[in-house]
Amino acid sequence: MAGIYLHIPFCKQKCHYCNFFSIASLKQKPDFLNALKREIAIQKAYLKNEGVQTIYFGGGTPSMLEKAELNSIMEELHKHYNIQPDVEITLEANPDDLSREKLKIFAQSAINRLSIGIQSFFDDDLNYLNRVHSADHAKTVIDNALDAGFENLTIDLIYGIPTLTDKKWQQNIDYFLASGIKHLSAYALTVEPRTALAHLINKGKLKAVDEQQSVRHFEMLMQSMEAAGFVHYEISNFAKPGHYSKHNSLYWIGGNYLGLGPSAHSYNGISRQWNVSHLTKYINEAGQSESVFEKEELTLDQRYDEYVMTSLRTSWGCDLEHIQNAFGKRYSQYCLSQAQAFLREAKIEQRENRLFLTQKGKLFADGIAAELFID
Ligand code: SF4
Questions:
Q1: Sheet arrangement for strand 293-297
Q2: Nearest-angstrom CA–CA distance, 308 and 288
Q3: What is the Å distance from ligand 1's center to 15 Cα?
Q4: Ligand 1 within 6 A of CB of 119
Q5: Which helix (H) or strand (E) element contains residue 20?
Q6: What average pLDDT does the segment 174-186 reach?
Q7: Second CATH level (architecture) for the domain 2-251
C-alpha cells in the first residue's frame, strides 16, 4: 500500500506559529498547477505501480483550490498511478474557505475525507494564533460539513495556547465530543524558530508558552478522549475504532509515499527525498530537472531510528520482532536494553514482543524515543 501527498502552498495569511512552507498570495497558482502536473507525470516511477490507497491534499491551504483545479489534479493522478477503488482522499481545509456551497462541491467531488483546521472554539485563542476565521464560523462549518454528508471528518485543535485556560480547553474538548466527529488531531502549541510567534514572544508582544500548561492540557485530553471511547492511536491523534486516518497510518507503519509540490517529502523504505521549499524554483524546475529535490539514502541505523520514533508514538507499539527481522538481532537487543530504565519508571510497558508508551510515557515521547536511537 502506498500514499501520495500533494502540497498546495497557498494561504490567506500566515498564522503566527506556522513553519510550513506557504505563500500568502495566489498570483502563482496557475503556474504552480502546471508544474504540479508535470511533477505528477514525471514521478510516476517512484511508486513502481504500487497500489495507491491514500491521497492527501495538504499545505498550505488546499481548500483554496477550485473544483476544476482539484478535478484536473485528480485526473492527472489517475492517468499515471495505480489508484485503488477504495482510496482515501483527504483535503485539508480552513473554515474561512468553507461556505455551504463549497462544502457541497467538495462532498460531490472525489474528496472523501475532510480535515478542518479549527484550532480553538474561542476567538481570543484564534487571535493569538493569527487565524483568519472566527470561533462562531468554525462551529457553523462543522454543522455544515456534517450536513453536506462528510462522515469521514476530522478536525485539528491546538492546546497550550497562553490564552487557553484549562476551563476553556475542557470546553473545546467537550464541544468536539458533542459534535459526533469521530477523529481528532490535537497538537501542543510549539514555538518554532523564525516564526512570527517566536519573534512576537521575544519582543514581549505575545505571552510566552508555558510547558506545564501544555502538559496539563495533554493529560486532560487523554482522560476525556479515553472516557469517550476514542482510541489514542498516535500521540496527537484520537479516533473511534475504524476511523483512523489511512494516510497518516501509512507514515507511521513505514509505508511508501510520494510527496509532490514544494517542500513535500517522499519515502520508499530505502531513501527519502524532499522538494525545494521555494515556489518560483519549484515552478521552473518541477518535472524538468532533478535539482527540484534533494535525496538521502538511509543507513540501516537511520531506518531503525525512524522506525523506533514513529512506532513508539502509536498504539501498535514498537515491535521487537520486526526490528530483529528488518534490522538484525543486535538492534532488537539494543532497543530492549535502552528501554529498561523506562520500563522501571513505568514510562514504557512491554506486552509480548512490543514496547508501548504508558500514559506517563506519552508526556515524554520524543525524549524516550531519542534514548532508544542508535545513531
Ligand atoms: S493555514 Fe496552515 S499552512 Fe497556512 S499559515 Fe496557517 S498553519 Fe500555516
A1: 231-234, 237-239, 183-188, 153-159, 113-119, 83-93, 52-59, 2-8, 256-260, 265-267, 271-275, 293-297
A2: 36
A3: 5
A4: no
A5: none
A6: 98
A7: Alpha-Beta Barrel (3.20)
Higher pLDDT, 6 or 288: 6
Residue 73 pLDDT greater than 90, yes or no: yes
Domain boundaries, given as residue ranges, for the chain: 2-251, 300-372
Residue 66 CA to residue 32 CA, distance in Å, equals: 14
The SS3 call for residue 152 is coil
Q: For residue 345, is pLDDT > 90?
A: yes
pLDDT in tens, 136-156: 999 999 999 999 999 999 999
**Sign of dihedral through CA atoms 148, 149, 154, 159?**
positive
Output helix, strand, coil percentages for the chain, rounded to the nearest 5. 45, 20, 30
d(CA 113, CA 154) in angstroms, rounded, equals 8
Say yes or no to pLDDT of 300 above 90: yes
Overall average pLDDT of the 106-122 stretch: 97
pLDDT of residue 121: 98
**At CB < 8 A and 24+ separation, what contacts does 29-36 make?**
29/69, 31/283, 32/261, 32/279, 32/282, 32/283, 33/69, 33/72, 33/73, 34/283, 35/282, 35/283, 35/284, 35/286, 35/287, 36/6, 36/73, 36/260, 36/261, 36/286
Identify the band that residue 373 occupies on the pLDDT scale cut at 50, 70 and 90.
Answer: very high
> Looking at domain 300-372, does it have CATH number 1.10.10.60?
no
- Give, for ligand 1, the residue of 7, 11, 23, 194 to mutate: max count of ligand atoms closer than 8 Å to Cβ: 11
Residue among 14, 130, 195 to mutate when testing ligand 1 (max atoms within 8 A of CB): 14
Q: State the sign of the Cα–Cα–Cα–Cα dihedral 250, 251, 257, 261.
A: positive
CA quadruple 25, 30, 31, 37: dihedral sign:
positive
